[in-house]
Amino acid sequence: MTADLAARPAGPDAPGGATDPVAALRRRRRRRLALVVAALGVLLVAAATLALTLGEASLAPGRALAALFGAGSDADVFVVHRLRLPRIETAVLAGASFGLAGAIFQTTLRNPLASPDILGIASGASLGAVTAMLVLGLTGLAVSGAAFVGALVVALLIWVFAWRQGLHSIRFVLVGVGFAYLCSSLLAWLLASVEIRAAQSALVWTVGSVADVRGTDLTTFAVAALVLVAAVAVASRWQGPLALGDDHARALGVPVDVARVASLLLAVGLVGVATSFVGPLAFVALVAPAIARRLLDDGGAALAVSVLTGAVLVLAADVVGQHLLFGVEAPTGIVTGLIGAPYLLWLLASDRRKTLA
Amino acid sequence: MTDVHPPAPAPARPGDAARDVTLRAHGVSLGYDGRRVIEGLDLELPSGSVTAVVGPNACGKSTLLRGLARLHPLDAGRVTLGGEDVGTLSRKELAKRLGVLPQSSIAPDGVRVAELVGRGRYPHQGWFGRHSSSDDGAVLRALEATGVADLADRPVAELSGGQRQRVWIAMVLAQETDVMLLDEPTTYLDLAHQVDLLDLLTDLNRTRGTTVVMVLHELNLAARYADHLVVMSAGQVVAEGRPGDVLTAASVHAAFGLRARVVPDPVSGTPLVVPLGRAGRDENIG
């Protein structure tokens, strides 16, 4: 960044100097990005602080922070490190994964409605987990594995049905919607056909919750998510041209089929990993990128900002679900919809342009 | 209109600015879903000129352009650019030499003019080196050449049709290729904006030496602006050459099934096709 600023002749008289509209626009964009990232960072820290302090053992922020760095009583340290921190980390990882996956789906398929919830990939993961629990009697990490396999199998099936001399966006979305209904129906049938107690315990896999991931599971989740995020960073070069349409992307030198397959595979991987630990978490993958794109408003994929909006959304939803719903503790997946939907509606309503995404 | 072909380049000077970028189709066949649109077509599009491809609807002119630009796979034959087989180049390498403006272009929501034009720099960027000052320079030159520098930070969606088409052409220009293919660049524009756009493309050809190949619908504009005219019908080239030689009442009738009289354009002297239609039913055409 500094290199190209230095390389450009400075001063109002120099060509490409102060009046260069291209550089000026880029500077404004950078400022906006920095502002959005900073604001979301502050929100994330605020939500994390709330999550650390609120609870049955209410800790003042100062005590919670002290305990976070190992000071304070053993009880405080236990509450912060064993109970609350893992939950915060899970919420951030899950939100980041869903947000990023949704952003990739939406730009790669050029459809703002293309998200794993709507394409049936999330319901495939639920179906996999519930089948493993209720039919095969599996528990623990094996259920997570089944959820991941469920997401991959549905994605693969959508692929097989949607492929016709290349992968066409609208076909992919329509086939995905079909599979979403199929999976939901199978899931409902499965839950209705077993005894009520078993169905109750499986319910978390149909809604999603960040409450119960800790220890090695959490480490596994973090490593898998980080590897996928790094891979997305490499593949993100394709997103700009892909957003212009297949012909434009090809004309600019993007191997469109390879790029689309690789991008979607990474997104499915992110959804599969996240769903296998926390369940589907409705709406996050749909709404987090939509919010991120509106905050930046530059026609880009807003991948990095979607990571942040997803994390903030899920963490805030978890805080609200745990403490602010009048004594009823609601699973995270219910609250994400309750918070995300009104915010998106407000953004759409206050949009100064007439065009909808 | 005079022939503006530059002197043939002296024996292979690779990397030379005025290098030979003749686009040739050798026995090219292509189509959709097993239905052949073009069968064994041979064609040469001269380096350094403005070529227009005309023909009736569904004659395969857009398909041919897509095949030449590698937007659509060839079933048979090959395309060469300056003698080099296009199919052996990487997509990115091809995108540095040959720019394409496909027919339908929809800008992503919110994108500003300079940002969209900046996407034309993609083939010149590595995996991690994003924008450099040479990219900014190319974008600015493209904006200025197409007369949209004033609009640099306007959202593309808010522009008029004529401005938007200039912006898309600027994006292809920012690719800095020697050859530019355009699929019906004047569609949806009114006559004034069509003329405006074709003037712009001619200027780019004259000042930058860019080889321009465009599919056009409007015969008379094609005849006026093209150095080289290709008339297609039913997947075949029925005539090619200088517009004055190619565009005759007979060739128009052969390609379009249209009875017309061809007279000299009072402004440019190029052929002007005047359809007879019902009004001229009894007119005798030769």
Structure description:
Chain A is mostly helical and 357 residues long. Chain A is built from 17 helices and no strands. Chain A has helices at 2-7, 21-53, 61-68, 74-108, 116-119, 121-135, 141-162, 169-193, 196-202, 204-207, 216-235, 239-242, 246-251, 256-278, 284-296, 303-323, 332-349. Residues 1-18 of chain A have low confidence and may be disordered. By secondary structure, chain B is an alpha/beta fold. Helix content of chain B is 30%, strand content 24%. Chain B has helices at residues 61-68, 91-97, 113-118, 133-145, 161-174, 191-208, 219-225, 243-246, 249-256, and strands spanning 23-32, 35-45, 50-54, 76-81, 84-85, 98-101, 179-183, 211-215, 228-233, 236-241, 260-264, 271-275. In chain B, the strands form three sheets. A six-stranded mixed sheet of chain B has the order 6-7-8-3-9-10, with helices on both faces. Chain B has a four-stranded antiparallel sheet with strand order 2-1-4-5, covered by helices on one side. A two-stranded antiparallel ribbon of chain B has the order 11-12. Classes of the chains: A mainly alpha (357), B alpha/beta (286). The interface between A and B is large, with 38 and 53 residues.
Instruction: State the helicity of chain A in percent bands.
Output: over 70%
Note the total helix count of chain B: 9
Query: Which geometry of chain A do the CA atoms define?
Result: globular
Q: Write the element-wise H/E pattern of chain B from the N-terminal end onward.
A: EEEHEEHEHHHEHEHEEHHEE
**DSSP helix count of chain A?**
17
**Radius of gyration of chain B (Å):** 19 Å
β-sheet strand percentage of chain B = 15-25%
Alpha carbon gap, first and last residue of chain B = 24 Å
Largest inter-chain contact set = A-B, 38 and 53 residues
Strand order of the largest sheet of chain B: 6-7-8-3-9-10
Order of helices and strands of chain A: HHHHHHHHHHHHHHHHH
Beta-strand residue fraction of chain A: under 5%
- Poorly predicted residue ranges of chain B: 1-16
Structural class of chain A: mainly alpha
Oligomer state equals heterodimer
Largest sheet of chain B: 6 strands, mixed
Low-pLDDT windows of residues of chain A: 1-18
Q: Please tell me what the overall shape of chain B is.
A: globular
Overall pLDDT of chain B:
86
